[in-house]
Amino acid sequence: MSISSAFNLASSGLRVTEARADLVASNIANASTAGYTRREGTQVSGGGQSVDLRMVRQIDDRLAAMSRDASAALGKASVGGEVLRGYLSTLGDIADEISPAARMATFQAGLDLLANNPSNPSVQADVLARADMLVRSLNTASNALEDSRTQAGASFESAAGEVNTALSDIANLNARLLGQTAGTSGFSSLMDEMNQRLDALGSQMDFKSRWEANGTLSLFTAGGTELVNGTDAARLSVDRQSGAIIADGTDLTPDRPGVRGITAGRLAGLSQMLSTVIPQMKLQQDELARGLVEGFEAADSSLMAGQPGLFTDAGAAFDPAQRDGLAGRLSINAAVRPDAGGALWRLRDGMSAATPGDAGATAQINAFITAFDTARPIATDAGLGSSARLGDMAANMVGAQHTIRVIADRAAGTAGIRLAAFEDGRSTVEGVNIDTELQKLLEIEQSYGANSQVLNSLSNMIDTLLNAV
């Protein structure tokens, strides 16, 4: 090897050592920077005359993809608790005295007491109070569920906005990556930004990605619909009433037959909440209210066709065409309210009785009690079976609705554990370990000293040769 060749190698070695020191310093300085991926330097030969340093980001794409899938699963499962927590606390559990199931049992017990004291005004007033509490429990639950629907709708639109921002940012990053050279500082910084956008997107929806030959990233839904192609990004729009998700005219709504859409993430969870879960809960409420209205109409022998019974639809008899929202409109017939011109004795004699009957009569009261023992038909899409007694229907409704959150919380717990495991693995690969970086500085110092010694020896050799001439 000639002296000039040795000199070039030693000089390039010093430059590489300096670049390695800069990399280590950058790693240490950004150890706590969100989204920063550890850099490593790989030495490459420069044609036998020099050495160069190539920067490599430490990342495991497969582990990152699994982490984002777990994040999407957690995002979807967390929606149940996020949206339903307030409503379910208002609804109460089966054993809670505020729940419709408990209020139903309390009202039935009051009718039993009235059957033993049919003419006692205080017992009659107590039955009316219990009926009021039952009605209020359903009214309150209906209003709380509507509030949850409103909250879910707002979150749905917000999530879609975050997805649109992330997709647009990814397309913009693609445009900036086109002018970059792999292995440079600028390229690595852009890749860190891309990594952050993908992680943020992962909690909102599941997706697939593919790096193209030109260095840009293409993005697709789990079903295969294109979201980002080079510098072009799809734009999502949502319908908070139906839970539909549309991307530039293409349906992405979860669980729709033939749709190549999304299956996980907060966006999917909120879509299902608006399209399926909350509507079914609302239907269950309305079916229970219908059972009360129809059951007590059928049990009241004083009524003519079209007249309202004890439980009414805002004062009117049940109208099959007006079932939607019935739980929120459920009310007690004014005919039994003294403060509205009614009379408590109608709880004994029937809502349309013109005058008080026998003070000791119990036939009508027993007919009301029998209404609780008669199985009422239930709409099949309510998810509570085809028929049930009123008390069982109330208990089944409360139990089924709490089960939805229990299942969601269990799924969130499982997804959270998976996400933590994957994130720990990513941290090992991508994160900066200060102790390791400091050890590298010692190695760099030794390498710098070795290259300096070579240059010093070459300088002495040249001086000796010059002095010999």
Automatic annotation (TrEMBL):
Protein family: Belongs to the flagella basal body rod proteins family.
GO biological process, one term: bacterial-type flagellum assembly
Gene: flgK
PANTHER family per UniProt: FLAGELLAR HOOK PROTEIN, FLAGELLAR HOOK-ASSOCIATED PROTEIN 1
Flagellar basal-body/hook protein C-terminal domain mapped to chain residues: 431-467
Cross-referenced InterPro entries: Flag_bb_rod_N (IPR001444), Flg_bb/hook_C_dom (IPR010930), FlgK (IPR002371), FlgK_helical (IPR053927)
Entry's Gene Ontology cellular component terms: bacterial-type flagellum basal body; bacterial-type flagellum hook; extracellular region
Molecular function via GO: structural molecule activity
Domain Flagellar hook-associated protein FlgK helical, chain residue ranges per copy: 101-300
Top-level lineage group: Bacteria
Keyword Secreted: yes
Keyword Secreted carried by entry: yes
Assigned keywords, A-Z: Bacterial flagellum, Cell projection, Cilium, Flagellum, Secreted
Principal location class: other
Protein known as: Flagellar hook-associated protein 1
Places the protein is found: Bacterial flagellum basal body; Secreted
NCBIfam families linked: flgK_ends (TIGR02492)
Domain Flagellar basal body rod protein N-terminal as annotated: residue spans: 8-37
